[in-house]
Amino acid sequence: xxxxxxxxxxxxxxxxxxxxxxxxxxxxVTVALFAWSPPPRPDFxxxxxxxxxxxxxxxxxxxxxxxxxxxRDRAGAVPIVPAPxxxxxxxxxxxxxxxxxxxxxxxxxxxxxxxxxxxxxxRIGVPIEDVRLFFEPDQRSNMPFGRHGDRRVIVxxxxxxxxxxVVAGLRTDGGWRVVRTPPRAWLASWQRRVLMLFxxxxxxxxxxxxxxxxxxxxxxxxxxxxxxxxxxxxKAPLIVEEGPTELRVTAHALNSMQQxxxxxxxERTNMIGAIAHDLRTPLARIAFRIEGAPDEMRExxxxxxxxxxxxxxxxxxxxxxxxxxxxxxxVAIDALIExxxxxxxxxxxxxxxxxIEAAEVAGDPMALERxxxxxxxxxxxxxxxxxxxxxxxxxxxEIRIADRGPGLPERSLxxxxxxxxxxxxxxNRATGGIGLGLSIARAIAQEHGGSLxxxxxxxxGLEAICxxxxxS
Length: 472
Fold this sequence. Notes:
The protein is α+β, with helices and mostly antiparallel strands.
């Protein structure tokens, strides 16, 4: 078999490209994050911040940062304007202030320092007895090469910096003014920025992944639908060979299999038709030669010959009417059923209409009429009359032809669709056909992409349920 080839990329190539594109986007975002995003600033409170929070007033600070610049035309650095350090109001962990009747107490892991307490009292301008200061030693877990148990406080240019929780108090006329570092946020601002950038990179990749998944799923779904139709009707349209290389090869293989299957079925059908047709000649010779036989023997043989002729005629009809749906046109199932029921009632047959909903299918009107005629004939012959319902179920129309006859054993329901299988075991033409009506009906339903099953009704009787896809 010649393999299908196309210009489309294979699934492996498309998946690899999508993966590489995703990695590239994440890499670009990460590089941008490190190149342009400001580094996270350590959040701390200095001794001056604590003094200002306790006293409620701004205090002069002895140390300043000096901002420097280098002109384009000079090599030396020239000082510009002195500027203070980071604004304490621009911090995430600003000190909270409350008024309490009693002096603050330290947390279990806090320590105190007489030196820092004296400095704090001096900054505020009160006696040391009116001030309390407790703090957690800072940066214990983050100090590089630090020994376990180190209890340090970073001091920069003579200013103690507290990176962890601080509790301080100032005695006032109404009790104690207490400040405390609030608990750390679950996500710091820099962490939120990082998550936001990675979220943006994810959003940038999602459209490509969606288009890739859609482009991959569409031909797979088309192949699945076409394979399902091929199972019901070997003469269904061939699959369009498109999409990635692997899917094009698969579609080509399915098309080749469908063509071989269709040719095999056509050859088998033609062979059966030819055999049935050729049997007419020897049957005619047998009938001619039996004329001289005794009456009793002649009548029995003539009966057998007539039954064989009926079987041959039914077989030829079966071969001719199955696998030969060549006309495809819009068919209003509701109108077809109503017309069929009206014709049956005109000749006195008990056919009743139940719930009838409008539905249109694509198919051969003559073949569909024969399908339902066969089902009605079976219901009238074996059940004494039928009731027909036409309802829409999702994207299909369901035609139910029910009777109140004796029904069938559950194990025999599927066997009724085999050729020459009858619910009534005798071959007497007076009690029914020869067992091809349901076979023909199911074949026609399948050729239209539908299905046909039998089911016993609650309370007795049999129900033929035919489903056909609604024309879109």
